[in-house]
Amino acid sequence: MAERGEPTEARVAVYIDFDNVVISRYDQLHGRDTWRKDEARRNDDKVSAKVDLARVDLGAILDYASSFGTVALSRAYADWSVPTNASYKSQLVGRAIDLVQLFPASSTKNGADIRLAVDVIDDMFRLPDITHVVIVAGDSDYIPLVQRCKRLGRVVVGIGVQGSTSQALVAALDEFETYDAILRDEPALEPVATPVKTKPTTGDEPAATPDLTPATATRLLVRAIGLARGKQDDDEWLNASTVKSQIKRLDPSFNEKSLGFRSFMDFVRAAEQVEIRESGQQRFMRLREESTPTGPVAAVEQPAKKAPRRATSAAPKVTEPAKADAPAEPVAKKPATRAPRRATSAPTATDPFREP
């Protein structure tokens, strides 16, 4: 029996050193130290295209964090008066991320690491139900914080940009994943081109989220299975309840009945990308392998490849008689050459010399 205060499910706290991940991503794509050289924080016309190219997908970060459990809190630390940071307003508000304002006291240090560390330790004592701590940063300054959280019994997960994350920090974490590895498959998650009714928005409100359709819900199902599969190494089959819980973490508005299905399994059966296995009262599912459709095609192509080989091997049999008919004269000469040999051998006999 669980004691009072003991968590019944995993609960996750996400802390984002926003300047760290944004600057690291910009330098990763455009070259080392280009953020400072381009003065990209201003986000003017000269660098706006490069800033958009290096835009960080905060939704992918929170989706990955939700694969560990329910995201109980999420905070981002930065100076939100900077134009580049302010351009993320739609993402931040859309995912209900708490914003912590940090006015820099120095032009070379933003102070996010100190404030972030203080908040983490404070939350660990105030919220004993937090089981996982996700730190989105790459500085080695967070190593003491990671060690402290581990001593308090928390699982510490790190997310950082490849090439800008300290190896010492990676070694101190329980689990680490690069930002590139958790990026969502944008073509698969792109909403279908259907008219969506949205309320008129003002400049102070983020754009309304499109209504959930069967097509977008299927993409949500595929992503949920992919995230849940990444946390399960022993078997690729996932329990239906596990998948549905992951879907609700990704999109709390998901409801299969609003899509026209009587149950969640009816919704899953309608998805061609998912394979289902039943074991008694349990229902399991997994993604269909992409290589399976190509098997029959390959089996059909193999006989087609062997057919030309048989034709070429039979071709010499057909052409050999033709070659034998072409040199008709040499064949006739061979008996002629042999006849003189027999004739010359006849005169060498003793009969002609015995007449005289």
Fold and architecture overview:
The chain is about 45% helix and about 15% strand. Among the domains are: about 10-185, 3-Layer(aba) Sandwich (Rossmann fold); about 215-285, Nucleotidyltransferase, domain 5 (2-Layer Sandwich). Helix 12 (about 215-230) packs across helix 13 (about 240-250). The radius of gyration is 37 Å and the shape is globular. The model is unreliable at about 1-5, about 185-210, about 290-310, about 310-340 and about 340-355 (pLDDT under 50). A hairpin with a 2-residue loop joins strand 8 (about 275-280) and strand 9 (about 280-285). The protein is of the alpha/beta class.
Brief synopsis:
With 356 residues, the protein is α/β, with parallel strands linked by helices. Helices cover 47% and strands 14% of the residues. It has a six-stranded parallel beta sheet, with helices on both faces. The protein has a three-stranded antiparallel beta sheet with strand order 7-9-8.
